[in-house]
Amino acid sequence: MTTALITGATAGIGAAYANRLARDGRDLVLVARDTERLAASAAELTARHGVRVETLTADLATEAGIEAVEQRLRDGDRPVDLLINNAGFGHRGTYLDVPVQDELDMLKVHIEAVLRLTTAAVPGMRERGFGGVVNVASVAAFLPRGTYGATKAWVVNFTLGIARDLAGSGVRLQALCPGFTRTEFHQRAGMGTSSIPGWGWLTADRVVDDSLRDLARNRPLCVPSKRYRAAVTAARLLPPGGLGKISNTAGRDYRKP
């Protein structure tokens, strides 16, 4: 039986990955900051699907948190065959409204943690000739969206680059770029969502299903749904900033949620 490690595993897309992978019979390592919520998620998944679920409390905005997950990924006696780098967050304010430390925390979680955890996991996978890494980015990677969009653009380019470097090794890489998804993301950031049209929303289960389908097909870039694939194509073809204003307005509603 294979094992998947998921960061940001207790809510939203991370929880959807946990449920789907447990249903498929994979053992799990769930990583998040909230110990009680981790325990509740583990108990529910074990009871429902009969898989082994390990929990690891870690804040990936801290050195200690990243090191704890790195250590678990390097444990050759308990190999992880699928890494889902899902942990992340958004800011409600625009540039100069957000404290620099909050921006640095975002860089730590979205970039440094993704780099270090991927680097901790991949050597063992390559040695075994089997494994996968999904780095959760966003369609914001293709639009000017401040630090958030910049970090997600890094995730996409990093993932596509190492996918090419590891071609033929048996290790599959994917940058997942969902659009607006019904999770706790906006609520936690204090963002309203009234400006996002109903047709713009995806479900976390849909995002995960598309991701795992494309990972099985060894597709290194996954943009769930035709409407968001069309948006990404348009963003690549239009002059820089062509869709940025729309994205900023819809994605960061500063009114009280």
Question: Could you please describe the fold and organization of this structure?
Answer:
By secondary structure, this protein is an alpha/beta fold. The protein has one domain (3-251): 3-Layer(aba) Sandwich (Rossmann fold), CATH 3.40.50.720. Helix content is 49%, strand content 13%. It contains 9 helices and 7 strands, in the order E-H-E-H-E-H-E-H-E-H-E-H-H-E-H-H. The protein has helices spanning 12-23, 35-49, 63-73, 100-128, 146-165, 185-189, 204-216, 226-237, 244-251, and strands at residues 3-7, 27-32, 53-57, 82-85, 131-136, 171-176, 221-222. Helix 2 links the parallel strand 2 (27-32) and strand 3. The termini are far apart. Keywords: Oxidoreductase. It holds the Pfam family adh_short. It comes from Kitasatospora cineracea.
Q: What descriptive keywords fit this protein?
A:
alpha/beta; seven-stranded parallel beta sheet; 49% helix; globular; Short-subunit dehydrogenase; NAD(P)-bd_dom_sf; oxidoreductase; oxidoreductase activity
Number of individual domains:
1
Radius of gyration: 18 Å
Q: How is the CATH topology named?
A: Rossmann fold
Shape: globular
Q: From the 3D coordinates, which CATH architecture would you assign?
A: 3-Layer(aba) Sandwich
Please report the number of helical segments.
9
What layout of secondary structure does this protein have?
Elements: E1 3-7, H1 12-23, E2 27-32, H2 35-49, E3 53-57, H3 63-73, E4 82-85, H4 100-128, E5 131-136, H5 146-165, E6 171-176, H6 185-189, H7 204-216, E7 221-222, H8 226-237, H9 244-251
Parallel strand pairs: 1-2, 1-4, 2-3, 4-5, 5-6, 6-7
